[in-house]
Amino acid sequence: MAPTFTLKSGTSWSDAWRRALAVAPEAFRDDRVLNLWNSTWQPDGRSLPATSPVDGSPIAGPPRVGRDTARRAVRAALDQHRAWRHTPLPERRARIAATLDALTEHRELLALLLVWEIGKPWRLAQADVDRAIDGVRWYVDGIEEIIGDRAPLDGPVSNIASWNYPMSVLVHAMLVQALAGNAVIAKTPTDGGVACLTLACALAAREGVPVTLVSGSGGELSEALVRAPEIGCVSFVGGRDTGAAVATAVADLGKRHILEQEGLNTWGIWNYSDWDALTAVIPKLFDYGKQRCTAYPRFVVQRDLFDSFLAAYLPAVRTLRVGHPLAVEHPGDPYPELDFGPLINAAKAKELTDQVAEAIDRGAIPLHRGEAADARFLPGQDTSAYVQPVTLLNPPRSSPLHHAEPFGPVDTIVLVDTEAELLAAMNASNGALVATLSTDDRATFDRLAPQIRAFKTGHGKPRSRGDRDELFGGFGASWRGAFVGGDLLVRAVTQGPAGERLPGNFPEYQLMP
């Protein structure tokens, strides 16, 4: 008989909300979050209704402000910037270090908010918080050598990021930008993370870090957050369509920019035999349902090896654990060990399910489809945001699954016969952030890897965004502007010698580190 699950004790949304109110009462009011600008928590904006992807229940929505408020917030951030940029580095370092101590104290609450707001399983939610803290601490420890005689920008850094990594990408970037001498502005991602970000920003603001956090529609706020003359740099993480509009704006204005955009990251299999290693890594590639910029949704497989590939792949994908991130058999049990929970919302789940159905209708061959009956759910819970893992062979060229990142637990497989076909299939999206080539022969890898248009290419192992001193960027349409990671992140948001050319992917040049 299948077990009946219940919610882990002390982890309800109301529990998390009460704890957030107690920790930062200045940033939360009754059932809503506030915006932070002009060094004050502001009760402005229109709070939109929101639901958790975990079970469809109501949670706090973003308090959306309009253009005029955003303009005032940017002007106030410039005033903060002009004061902060003259703050001695040891004092900036001390304030950021104190912020990290506060984030560490409340790491479990930040992670629990992430579970409810964006559906991350507990292990991955904690990892998101810890990577932010540990990553920024690396910069705090080495900032004197990294920054040298570089100076802050002339205006604050504006951050527009996707919802999937609020801490390890967005908060991490904001704190390093502030450490480098800049005031920072962030727009809350539309699809989730507002309470977690609000709490993190409240802890930073208490330590005197010049942080602005506002919510609103990207289209309405872009004039202030992207095009305003006060902005010294625009940092964007998101899709190619929105990124292209931001890229056009910053190019027209000649503004410093860091634009990380999606690409179809691929895993190639060529003259390969270490199938046990592949079996071991497959479940890890489904972390967070592949809702990340460095996920691998496409396998490009040598036709002669397809049977061996399937023998290694299918048993691994059948082990995936999916379900409610807080569902346990007994209230006092540990958090469940899951590979992923829901997608970011029910609309995305339906869109992806429809794309899979359409691809199959047009000729794709389903090799694996997970069963909802095997998932871990509470009795009667809303499961509309959940999608079970799917694997398709040869998606039709007319399908978005052929050429775009699905941002969900869908793998597609393309078979090839020649090295030329392998490279063409691995470069299907005109640039990617990461790629991997599994081949037994190191010489073959060394010959083919430079022809794969990805910023990082692994030899039989996945690549990630990286932490601390690991650099990160992209080729083609997957990245525009300055590369980041290590000292490059500080260089991207500071001024160096006259005529300096930053490593990056720019319209007029591409410069590798």
From TrEMBL:
<feature type="domain" description="Aldehyde dehydrogenase">
    <location>
        <begin position="44"/>
        <end position="487"/>
    </location>
</feature>
<dbReference type="InterPro" id="IPR016163">
    <property type="entry name" value="Ald_DH_C"/>
</dbReference>
<dbReference type="InterPro" id="IPR016161">
    <property type="entry name" value="Ald_DH/histidinol_DH"/>
</dbReference>
<dbReference type="InterPro" id="IPR016162">
    <property type="entry name" value="Ald_DH_N"/>
</dbReference>
<dbReference type="InterPro" id="IPR015590">
    <property type="entry name" value="Aldehyde_DH_dom"/>
</dbReference>
<dbReference type="Pfam" id="PF00171">
    <property type="entry name" value="Aldedh"/>
</dbReference>
<feature type="region of interest" description="Disordered">
    <location>
        <begin position="45"/>
        <end position="67"/>
    </location>
</feature>
<keyword id="KW-0560">Oxidoreductase</keyword>
<protein>
    <submittedName>
        <fullName>Aldehyde dehydrogenase family protein</fullName>
    </submittedName>
</protein>
